[in-house]
Amino acid sequence: MAERTLQSRIEVKTKFSPPVAGVASFVLPGLGQMIVGQVYRGILLLLAFGSGLGIYVWRIAEIGRREVGFGAKFGKAIDLEPMFFILSLVVLVIVWLLIAYDAYRCVQQGKRGGSGVFLSILAMFFVLGWQISQIDVVRMVREAPDALPPLSKVLWPWKAAIEYDIEKELGDARILATEEGDIPVPNVPLADEPYLIATPTQGELSTQDPDTGELIPGTILTLVGGNFRPNIETAIWWKDPNGNEFQIRQEGQYVSAVTDDQGAFRIEVIMPYRLTPPSAVGPLYHDVFALQTREIGRPKASEALRLTVERMIETIFMGMMATFFGIILSIPVSFLAARNIMGGSRITMGIYFLTRTIMNIIRSIEPLIWALIAVVWVGLGPFAGIVALTIHSIAALTKLYSEAIEGIDPGPIEAVRATGANTLQTIMYGVIPQMISPFISFSIYRWDINVRMSTIIGLVGGGGIGFLLVQYIRLLDYRSAGIAVWFIAVTVAILDYVSAEIRARLI
Fold first, then answer.
1. Which of 67, 353, 357, 394 gives 72 a disulfide partner, CB atoms 3.0 to 4.6 angstroms apart?
2. Rounded to an integer, what distance in angstroms lies between the CA atom of residue 423 and that of residue 431?
């Protein structure tokens, strides 16, 4: 143990004194380490400190980009985010001084400096990363109550999974919103049908002050309804001349009335704000109506649930097809990327390096990027997702297969070659029998990955449940989005269990 510790220490023999090395690194971080023989350490420290300083200056220029001159930009940055820029400056100075001390210590103690300077560099990048990534814990805590309602819908969305047939009861009245035109005759109470009487039947819509933007209330309408179902909430809706329907809101709340024991109600509403098209001429008639709905019949799967099941099945088969094509195409390529198979001549080694390079480039590009390219190539839909996942699977499986081939026992290969077998026969009888087990393991693992990735591919138009999920999120339909999230989680868990069972039985 003592011998190993001694070997791990690097003695430094130099003609420079410790203060000289320290001052050199103070002038240029890392220079002191370089002149005393710790070249790689000095270069690393110089690059790390230079990167941190460059990021710091870049953030100042970015935040104060409207100012002229670095001093003005720095002042603007300090005004906007004083804690970050002051703390970052302090950390940069500490790192600078520790680099100088590290060079001093290298000469004084005659060995490589400690790890404290690298810990300070990590702290420097952590502080810079905190600001660049815009972490705001205070805002996260402050706005947590606002996030709870949509999150609760995502976590427990099953109310949206079931729906019923809807029976509607409706009463409406016509309102003239212009000075010209025939004023509608008020409705009269009906004997056995829901009705709605509006008073007056002519008025002005709410408008917006062009200077302040404040809403100027329109005419107040008195609505009297009858023959509705008793003790039921009744929503008040509005329909403009263009056919647009919406529930009236006042003071941020939807307007509704609760009927009495006889099914009647009385409520006052303000005529809502609506934009009148410049091309509109003549009288403009609007409709106000009271609407009651109730669920009837047996429960049935909602449209969101049906679509989620359909897209989840599509997602599973996307992953399966991409894995199948990836396995078929990657197996022959993997032999070209195995050094022990292709090391026979310069030509085969050239093929080896070329194959490795191409596969590394393909694998370095994320499936989402391939999906964007595939959407342009073959259009929106699951086929684009299959193409993207297949391309990435070929590169990933080629790496796994080829490294497994390189790690096989060379004894059987030499034995087969000793019989005079050619390259193809050597692969068939010396390589493939050893590769069946890892090939199966890697293939099942890739299927698992492809199913997981196919849930995300849809975000960029590659089909599957991801496409449905992003649409629900954009529409703020959190319950439907929650159904999709639950199906993704359950499906991935089931497939993980199935793949584990398959591996246990076949390997």
1. 67
2. 10
Pair of tokens at residue 93:
């100075």
> What six digits make up the tokens of 182?
């025939």
Q: Extract the tokens encoding 223.
A: 């609505």
**Residues contacting 413, CB < 8 A, separation 6+:** 340, 426, 430, 431
For residues 465 and 314, is the Cβ–Cβ distance under 8 A? yes
Token digits of residue 251: 């003071």
Homologous superfamily in CATH for domain 303-506: MetI-like (1.10.3720.10)
Alpha helices in 280-381 (DSSP H): 303-336, 339-342, 346-364, 367-378
- N-terminal to C-terminal alpha carbon distance within the chain: 41
Report the predicted TM-score, pTM, of the whole model to 2 decimal places: 0.68
Measure the CA–CA gap between 440 and 331, rounded to whole angstroms: 12
Q: Quickly count: other Cβ atoms within 10 Å of residue 411's Cβ.
A: 10
Task: Name the DSSP class of 168.
Answer: E
Neighbour-count burial of 14, counting CB atoms closer than 10 A to its CB (0-12 exposed, 13-18 middle, 19+ buried) = middle
Tell whether the model's pLDDT for residue 278 goes beyond 70: no
Query: At residue 101, what is the residue type?
Result: Y
Q: What residue spans define the domains of the chain?
A: 2-135, 163-301, 303-506
**Euclidean distance between CA atoms 229 and 213, whole angstroms:** 40
Task: Give the DSSP H or E segment for 268.
Answer: strand 265-270
* C-alpha span between 122 and 56 (Å, rounded): 15
Q: Partners of 226 in the beta sheet?
A: 195
Distance of CA 27 to the CA centre of its chain: 44
DSSP 94-158: HHHHHHHHHHHHHHHTTB---SHHHHHHHHHHHHHHHHHTT--HHHHHHTHHHHHHHHHHHHS-G
| Each residue's pLDDT tens digit, 391-449 | 999 999 999 999 888 888 778 877 887 888 777 787 787 877 877 888 888 888 888 88
How many C-beta atoms surround the C-beta of residue 140 within 10 A?
10
User: Is the dihedral angle over the CA atoms 30, 32, 34, 40 positive or is it negative?
Assistant: negative
Q: For tokens 């409705």, name the residue.
A: 187
Assess contact for 19 and 103: CB atoms under 8 A.
no
For residue 326 the two structure tokens come to 């990836």
Token pair of 373 as six digits: 């390219």
- How many C-beta atoms lie closer than 10 Å to residue 69's C-beta? 9
**CA of residue 184 relative to chain centroid, distance:** 53
